[in-house]
Amino acid sequence: MGSKAPAAANTHGVYFHSPLCGTCKVAKRMIKVMEETFPHFEIREVNINEEIALAHSLKVTSIPCLIIFQEEREAERLYAFRSLEHLYTKLKPYTVVERLHKSFRLDQTKGD
């Protein structure tokens, strides 16, 4: 989880975890798959033990936690990652690919 080109409309995720959390390790593997699936969707990794003030200011109540920001505002918050399919369904609307598809569909309806 590192530096990548920003997603459309300044959209990114912040993943809160702890190195001692077993569920977080499973979630991190799922996030890595999503990063490969959506390479322009940046997910920043935050160790909650090192960033307690940030977690507190964002009202993170448990880990793992993925907060999706759009235009610097929280758009969605995930505590239950469930499955790759679930995570894919949650992240897809915030990706560049989905935005391009929506834009293309709008352009097609205008031409009719």
Detailed description of the structure:
- By secondary structure, this protein is of the alpha+beta class.
- It has a single domain, classed as Glutaredoxin.
- The protein is 41% helix and 22% strand.
- It contains four helices and four strands, in the order βαβαββαα.
- A four-stranded mixed β-sheet has the order 2-1-3-4, with helices on one face.
- Strand 1, helix 1 (22-37) and strand 2 form a beta-alpha-beta unit.
- Helix 1 packs across helix 3.
- The longest helix is centred in the N-terminal third of the chain and has 16 residues, at 22-37.
Q: Major β-sheet, in short?
A: 4 strands, mixed
CATH architecture: 3-Layer(aba) Sandwich
Shape: globular
CATH superfamily: Glutaredoxin
The CATH class: Alpha Beta
- Computed over alpha carbons, the radius of gyration is 15 Å
Low-confidence blocks of residues: 2-8
Q: How many domains, in number, for the residues?
A: 1
Strand order of the largest sheet: 2-1-3-4
Pfam families: Thioredoxin (PF00085)
Domain Thioredoxin: 14-91
Protein name: Thioredoxin
InterPro entries: Thioredoxin-like_sf (IPR036249), Thioredoxin_domain (IPR013766)
